[in-house]
């Protein structure tokens, strides 16, 4: 394993960093798409959270709508989980892990997060969403365990 001081691992010359960058971009796009879908759903359902927003669509009112709330919860779940992946994965890249291990962990995590959102928005019964969540958490745990083991091994 190369040290970050001896070799710049946070560059496109590093295949693991390129992979991290690619999957991070896919996750950013997903978070952005769900964020954009929230106001679209609000307009579609004419359900807003602030009185001033009701002026934007005729016939709208301040109220909660289950479909809007489902999209908001999916977005909130992304905001609670994906930043942990970004931070832990950046640490992972900095310790120069095996390329295939990194690729598969990044790939599996990204697929799990996309599936989690899809399952959530389509209201697919449990345990589908829980399994997607568990796969993502497991990837993060493996990444962090690898970082701790390789950074602080005695």
What does this protein look like?
α1 (15-45) runs antiparallel to α2 (66-94) and α2 packs antiparallel against α3. The chain has a single domain (15-152), classed as Up-down Bundle (Four Helix Bundle (Hemerythrin (Met), subunit A)). A two-stranded parallel ribbon has the order 1-2. By secondary structure, it is mainly α. The chain has helices at 15-45, 66-94, 99-121, 128-152; strands at residues 47-48, 61-62. The mean pLDDT is 91.
Structure described in brief:
With 154 residues, this protein is mainly α. The protein has helices at 15-45, 66-94, 99-121, 128-152; strands spanning 47-48, 61-62.
Look at the helices and sheets and give the structural class.
mainly alpha
Q: Spans of 5+ residues with little confidence (pLDDT < 50)? A: none
Number of helices: 4
Biggest sheet features: 2 strands, parallel
Query: Could you state the order of secondary-structure elements as H and E?
Result: HEEHHH
Quick check: average pLDDT? Answer: 91
Strand content: under 5%
Global morphology: elongated
User: CATH homologous superfamily name?
Assistant: Membrane associated eicosanoid/glutathione metabolism-like domain
How far is the N terminus from the C terminus?
Answer: 16 Å
Function: Conjugation of reduced glutathione to a wide number of exogenous and endogenous hydrophobic electrophiles.
Membrane topology: Multi-pass membrane protein
Transmembrane segments: 20-40, 82-100, 130-149
Subunit structure: Homotrimer; The trimer binds only one molecule of glutathione.
């Amino acid at each position: 394993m190369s040290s970050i001081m001896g070799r710049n691992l946070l560059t496109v010359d590093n295949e693991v960093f390129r992979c991290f960058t690619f999957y991070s971009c896919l996750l950013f796009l997903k978070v952005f798409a769900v964020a954009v879908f929230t106001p679209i759903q609000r307009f579609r359902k004419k359900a807003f959270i602030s009185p001033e927003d009701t002026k934007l669509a005729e016939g709208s009112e301040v109220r909660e709508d289950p479909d809007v709330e489902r999209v908001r919860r999916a977005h909130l779940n992304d905001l609670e989980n994906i930043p942990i992946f970004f931070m832990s994965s950046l640490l992972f890249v900095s310790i120069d892990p095996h390329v295939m291990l990194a690729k598969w962990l990044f790939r599996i995590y990204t697929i799990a997060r996309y599936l989690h959102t899809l399952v959530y928005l389509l209201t697919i019964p449990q345990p589908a969403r829980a399994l997607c969540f568990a796969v993502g958490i497991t990837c993060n745990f493996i990444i962090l365990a690898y970082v701790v083991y390789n950074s602080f091994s005695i």
